[in-house]
Amino acid sequence: MLEIKNLHARIAEDETEILRGVNLTVNAGEVHAIMGPNGSGKSTLSYILAGKDDYEVTEGEVLFNGENMLEMEPDERAAAGMFLAFQYPIEIPGVATMEFLKTAMNAQRKARGEDTLSIPDFMKRVKEAASHLNVSMDMLKRPLNVGFSGGEKKRAEILQMSLLEPKLCVLDETDSGLDIDALRIVSEGVNKLRGPDRAMVVITHYQRLLDHIVPDVVHVLSKGRIVKTGDKDLALELEKNGYADYIDTAA
Amino acid sequence: MNASVPIKHTQAESDLLDRFDSAKGALAGSVAVAALREAALGQIRDRGLPHRRVEEYKYSDLRAFLKSAAPLAAAADAATAKALLEGQDSYGDLDRFRIVVANGTFLADLSNTDALASEGVTLTALNDALAGEGGAQLLASPKTGLSDGVVALNTAFVQGGVVITVKAGAEVSKPVELVQVATSTGAQVTRNKITLGEGAKLRLLETFAGDTGEGELNTVLDCELGDKAALATTRLVIGAADAPRLFTTIATLGAETEFKSLGFIAGPRFTRNQQFVNFTGENSEAKIYGVTMAGGEALADQTLIVDHAVPHCNSREFFKTVLDGRARGVYQGRINVAPHAQKTDGEMMTQALLLSEDAEMANKPELEIFADDVLCAHGATSGQIDEDLLFYLRARGIPEDEAKTLLVLAFLSEAIEEYGEDDVTEGLEARVRDWLAGH
C-alpha cells in the first residue's frame, strides 16, 4: 500500500536536512509503529505523507498504491485514502464541526466520482461514529476544535478518521496529552478501523499506546533514518533501555 | 463676502452645477427646502467634491474618482420597477414586507402599504413631506457630519424617497425590505426617513435593484428612535456597478434605545458607507457592524462617527473586510465621548483579511475621549489566510478553493453572527459565497 524509498527531505525555509534516506513498506492490513527520540524526523515524515509544503523532498520516492504520492495535492491524497491524525489538531473558528465534516466527506466523494451524502445518511453516520468515541452533539455544534480539551481534539480526529474511511491512517503522537481513559477510548476507535484493506502507521514516543494498539511491526527512527526494525517486543525493549543504543548506532 | 479663491472645477463638478440648474425647477420642496438645496450646492461649488485633503476622505478621493456626473434619472416607470423586483431575490423567500422606491418615487401600489398600516407603520412620499411645513427638517444634516460633501450632494439633489413612521409601541412582526430600484440609467439621489415612536420595534432591510449606469447612487437613511425603541437595519450593497455608491446613515437615539446596523458591501467599484450615530438619551446601546468584500480595482470605505454626547451609553463596532486583487479597503471609525458622558462603554474592532499581495487596507480607529470614567477600547488587525488552517482542511480532502471559501466565510460570519439577525444570516452568507465565486 505504502512504499517509501530512500526518502530525503529538508525544511524548505532553511534547508535543514531532516530525513536522510527512509525506507519503509507498509502492506494492507498491517499496523506499523514508528518510535524514536525527539527530533528524529517522525512528525516530518507524517507531514510529508500528508503533503505539507513546508518540507522539500530532495531524493527518493513515495508510492501510495503504486501512484507517486509526492506529485499529488494534499486534498487529492486525502481523496485517494490518505489520512493524517494530527499531533496538534488545528482550531478553526467560525467553521462548525458538522459543516466541516459534511464538506470534507462530500469533497472526497466528489473527487472519487461518488454521489454526495443525503443529510439523513450523513447524520446517521456521524451519530453512530460519535457515540463510539464519546463525542457529544454539543461538541459537534461548536466550531472545529475550538475550546476542545486535548482529549476532545484527539477524539475528534479519530471521529474524522472513522467517517472518512481512509485506506492509510497515519497517527502522529495520538497518545500525547491523553489520560488513561481517553487513551482507551481513542485506541478502541482506532482498533475498530483495523481491517485487511487498511494500513496504519502509528507514530509515538512511548510504548504505552502500543499496549492498546498492538503493532505488527515496530521501527526505530533516529536522525532521519530507520535504524532498527522488529516486532512488538522491540517496543518493550525500548521502554526498558531507552533510545541511547540507537542514537549511538546512527551517529 | 466670501474671500476664498474660487476653485477650478473638475468636469464632474461642472456637470453637477449644470445638473442643478436644469433640475432645480422640478425638485420638490418648500421655499425653505429650496434654500437648503441652494446652500448645499454652494458647498460643492465652493469646496468641490470631497477629496483626499479632506481628512474624512483621505483614502476615498471622490473628486479624483468621479470623472463626470450623469443627469438625474428620469421619472420612475412602475412596470419596469415591477419586473426588476421580480428578479431581485437577495433574501430568497424570507417572509417580509416590502416598500418600493423607484428613481426616488415611492410606489405605494408595489409596497405592502395596507399590511404595514395594520402593523402601525405609515408611509408617506418624501416629496409630499418636503413640500409641507417642517419639510426642511427632513433634510437636516447629521450633527457630526455638518459639512460632509456626500450629504451635501444628497441635500442638493434629493429626488425623493419615503418617510416611514412607526407608531409608539408597535412591534412590526416581519422584517421590512426597503427596495430602491433604478428603472433607468442616471443618478439616483434619495433620502428615507424612519421615525420610531416610543417602544416601537422595526427590522429594516435596505436593498437595491437595477443599474444606474454612469450615474451615482447617493442615498441617506435618517433614523430617529424615540425612547425605548429598537431598530435593526441591514444595508445590502452588491453588484459590480462602476459609478460611485454613496450611503449615509444618520441615527439619533433617544433614551434606552437599541440600535443595530450592518453595512454589507460586495462588488461595486467605489463604495462609501458612512454612519453618524448620535446618543441623545441615556442607557442606550448602538451596535454597528460592517462586512466588506472588494476585489479587482474596487474601493470600499466604511466610515462612522459615534457620538456619546450623554452618559451611560454603550457602543460596539465590529468590522470585517476581505480584499483581493488590487482592491483597497478603508475603515475609519471614531468614538467621541463628551466631557460629561461618564460611564460610556465603547468597543471598536476592525479586522482585514488580504487574499492578494497587492490589496491594501487602511484601518483608522479613533477615540476622542473627554470624560474620565469610561471604558473604551479599539483594535485593528490585517492578515492573510492562515496556511496551517488551509492545510488542515486540504488534508481532509477539501480542495484549495473550497477551503479558502470556508475560511473567508468563517472570518466574515463572525460579524454577521454577532449582528444576530438570524433571518438574514443565511441570505448574507449566500451573498458572500456569490462574491467569492464570481469576483
UniProtKB/TrEMBL annotation, chain A:
<keyword id="KW-0067">ATP-binding</keyword>
<comment type="similarity">
    <text>Belongs to the ABC transporter superfamily. Ycf16 family.</text>
</comment>
<feature type="domain" description="ABC transporter">
    <location>
        <begin position="2"/>
        <end position="248"/>
    </location>
</feature>
<dbReference type="InterPro" id="IPR027417">
    <property type="entry name" value="P-loop_NTPase"/>
</dbReference>
<protein>
    <submittedName>
        <fullName>Fe-S cluster assembly ATPase SufC</fullName>
    </submittedName>
</protein>
<dbReference type="Pfam" id="PF00005">
    <property type="entry name" value="ABC_tran"/>
</dbReference>
<dbReference type="InterPro" id="IPR010230">
    <property type="entry name" value="FeS-cluster_ATPase_SufC"/>
</dbReference>
<keyword id="KW-0547">Nucleotide-binding</keyword>
<dbReference type="InterPro" id="IPR003439">
    <property type="entry name" value="ABC_transporter-like_ATP-bd"/>
</dbReference>
<dbReference type="InterPro" id="IPR017871">
    <property type="entry name" value="ABC_transporter-like_CS"/>
</dbReference>
<dbReference type="InterPro" id="IPR003593">
    <property type="entry name" value="AAA+_ATPase"/>
</dbReference>
From TrEMBL, chain B:
<feature type="domain" description="SUF system FeS cluster assembly SufBD core">
    <location>
        <begin position="184"/>
        <end position="411"/>
    </location>
</feature>
<dbReference type="InterPro" id="IPR011542">
    <property type="entry name" value="SUF_FeS_clus_asmbl_SufD"/>
</dbReference>
<protein>
    <submittedName>
        <fullName>Fe-S cluster assembly protein SufD</fullName>
    </submittedName>
</protein>
<feature type="domain" description="SUF system FeS cluster assembly SufBD N-terminal">
    <location>
        <begin position="12"/>
        <end position="177"/>
    </location>
</feature>
<comment type="similarity">
    <text>Belongs to the iron-sulfur cluster assembly SufBD family.</text>
</comment>
<dbReference type="InterPro" id="IPR055346">
    <property type="entry name" value="Fe-S_cluster_assembly_SufBD"/>
</dbReference>
<dbReference type="InterPro" id="IPR037284">
    <property type="entry name" value="SUF_FeS_clus_asmbl_SufBD_sf"/>
</dbReference>
<dbReference type="Pfam" id="PF01458">
    <property type="entry name" value="SUFBD_core"/>
</dbReference>
<dbReference type="InterPro" id="IPR045595">
    <property type="entry name" value="SufBD_N"/>
</dbReference>
<dbReference type="InterPro" id="IPR000825">
    <property type="entry name" value="SUF_FeS_clus_asmbl_SufBD_core"/>
</dbReference>
<dbReference type="Pfam" id="PF19295">
    <property type="entry name" value="SufBD_N"/>
</dbReference>
